[in-house]
User: Fold these one by one.
Assistant:
Number 1:
Amino acid sequence: MLIFVIAAVLYAIDQGIKAAVVASMSLGQTVPVLGEVLQLRYLQNSGAAFSSFSGYTWALTLVALGVIAFVIWFARRIRSVVWGVVFGFVLGGALGNATDRFIRPPGAGQGSVVDYLQVWGFPAVFNIADVWVCTAAALFLILTFRGVRLDGTRIPPRPAAGSPAT
């Protein structure tokens, strides 16, 4: 249940911010928030990260729908709060960007994602849904390397070579 609550909250935040950006900014407009360190810059991205795969919007939509379907199907296996957060972030972010693909022109899975965050020194403009997906990926790696299972237990460490077995 946690996965779906987190996803719903993140989805609402994402779509609310995007609606505010579209309503209050013109395409290409930049508004400084923290000088040049953080700016709002309204762009539409038909591709993926760094505007890659711009000619394959329909394929990106299918990937997002596949991720959404997988998380919903896989959710019943999650027994850990921290893994629930990870999958909630993935689901919320994927839903936010997939929604853009359907509701933004030209629609029908071909629409552009609204991007609006520009950070000094980072070569791309992105949105909060992207932040959540990237945060989930980082947490996924941390949990995996730390041996945290989907039920929250840890994989016991292997004894070092040459050490007595216990």
Note: The longest strand covers residues 38-45.
Number 2:
Amino acid sequence: MRVHGTLGNGFQEIIYQRALAIELEKQGVGFAREVEAAIHYNQIEIGTRRVDFVVEETVLIELKALSKLEDVHLAQALNYLEAFNMEIGLLINFGSKSLEFKRITNERKLRNQNNR
């Protein structure tokens, strides 16, 4: 919220990513930026994807700087949760007048844990 309140909307995603990294560091929150994961199809690696942040090794954060979030952005974030084998993520959009964010969960991972 502080990043959006300070910068407002209208910048490219990388600007918000750098500002959020500064805020996380100031708060003493552990994070990794631009984390890459392999994407597999039939057990064959077919490429890689990068997520903006992994926080405290438990929360994936994907940033956007768009006028409006759409279903495709939510689907992308959910796919990242799967690829990174994580349970919880945040999709944050700095591009609208008001900060938009959605908490996302990897239901498949949660079901697998509950079935153990």
Note: The chain has one domain: 2-114.
Number 3:
Amino acid sequence: MSTPNDAHQEHRTFTARATLVAIGIKVRQIGLLKPIFQKVRIAQKTVKFSPAEKLVDALITILAGAHGLVEANKRVRPDPGLQQAFGRSGCAEQSVIQDTLDACTSENVKQMEEALAVIYRQHSRGYRHPYDRQWQILDIDITGRPCGPKAAFATPGYFSRQRNRRGRQVGYVLATRYEEVVVQQVFSGNESLTKALRPLVEAAESVLELDDAKRRRTILRIDAGGGTVEHINWLLEQGYQLHCKDYSGHRAEKLAASVQEWFTDPKDPNRQFGWVTLPTDGIYVRPVRRIAVRCRKKNGQWGVGVILSTLAPEEVLSLVGESPEKADDPQAVLWAYVRFYDQRGGGVEIEIKEDKHGLGSLRRNKKRFEAQQMMVLLEALAHNLLVWVRGWLADACPRLARWGLLRWIRDAIHISGVVVFHSSKIVQIVLNRGDPVAGELGPGLAALLAPEETAIILGEI
């Protein structure tokens, strides 16, 4: 099919990703990517496309389901409708996109972080969170990202189920209620959350513009890597609410020995919990409640951990959907504290898996550290953009709004269709009526693009 090269004729072009074309039109209409063009200044000559335009090409490639930027030549370059939807007159060759990422400096990374902060404040729900009515919950975690041994800052470290691997670590701060990535940063492979926690919290505080009042209404949920006395006291001094695990396994065993009554988890007979009765002896700058949790291991012995929380029983009961009136029931209260910590598994841990499997983040690695940082920032933007798209379509497509990123990219983004141009403007997108998702998604996309006067119809492809 021909491309739109005559302003006075109607032209049609095939696309394998009609939904992404519609998303691109919306993104351009609201100016979502403008901060990147305004703030990021990469010192690279513009031959055909500017460096910022090539960053957008990389973003489109990620959204198109590519697990490597080399796929830009296959997924984006042959699709003029997709390029036009995002305001692009073409797509750079994949090696040129790679060169732009390799040209990035630490200053460019800071510029990109500033641009994404602006985008997040303009379009996210997390930034507009109603602190006066509801707790803001921020989950913080770090995950291994294996890469080649010659990559910068690729060191031996912890990589799940991969012994003797080298790689880097990626830190996350997630606005859990909204499934949005507030901050995503790259660290060397041998760094743990112990070292990464403070820069992640400071970055999130900057993006969300947290003042004293907002910090008092923000719960930081962290695993044992961030549970050192030093970190806990620093966060308590900042005014945050905490729900985390104690870092020290030796101290956890000592504290667990003070439990006077153990309660069995009603969902897991091999897990028990109880109140720590030893005094804190002024270790922490603010009062904390401590709950010992022990799980039966395969060898019959107990594995022990301690949860520390600044939340009152009534508060944590409400957070897990229980009545605050159960505050007089010790088992219900203890179970609420444990369940609220367990919910990290449905928060940041799930979103990390979504990025690895849905966005294919594990397969995109750059040798230069700054290039890798820029890549991770583009992935964070892609993650948030898809989360926002689900929100835009939630009223018209409630079932699709519950899908994860993997299914969204695989089943919703990849609907074939035809893009119809008139006077260089996309006036119609024809979705393949044979696609099982098209009929459900069509009304939502039609409502989304109504302000742009772009029609969405079902048809034969």
Note: The chain is about 40% helix and 20% strand.
Number 4:
Amino acid sequence: MIDQLWAGWRRSFIEDTDGGRNVQSCVLCALGADEGDETFVLHRGKHNYVVLNAFPYAPGHMMVVPYQHVGDVLDLEDEVYQETTDLLRISLRALRKAYDPEGFNVGANLGRAGGAAFDDHLHFHVVPRWLGDTNFMTAVASMRVLPESLSATHARLKGLFV
């Protein structure tokens, strides 16, 4: 069993509403509606935002998230999809500049069977990777060891999305 991290500050995302649109049921909608830096949003585009993953696999693990609440890439409006792919490329450039990784995992988990934790709100993961970056702590102790805090990662990457 993996240890749990209690993050009481996230409660505001669950209870928030935006302009009469209830965002209670979707944390990704709530993150898109929240304008504060405490959410670790790196960039807000017209149709998508880029945010650090709150439970990263590696430093710099980010997500490109459409504001459009759909669960399938085929349901995205064309202009939303175009900006999504543009932001994936911008995210890769930012991570290369900030971290110089040796590779990346990039993709989306579509549907519950595809491993999506939020299967009704599409999002794309961008994870920098290095040779030998496997960590025995996950297998042995059910925990991850990250060499950098989310706030330090945010500070390192935020300026690369201007």
Note: The radius of gyration is 16 Å.
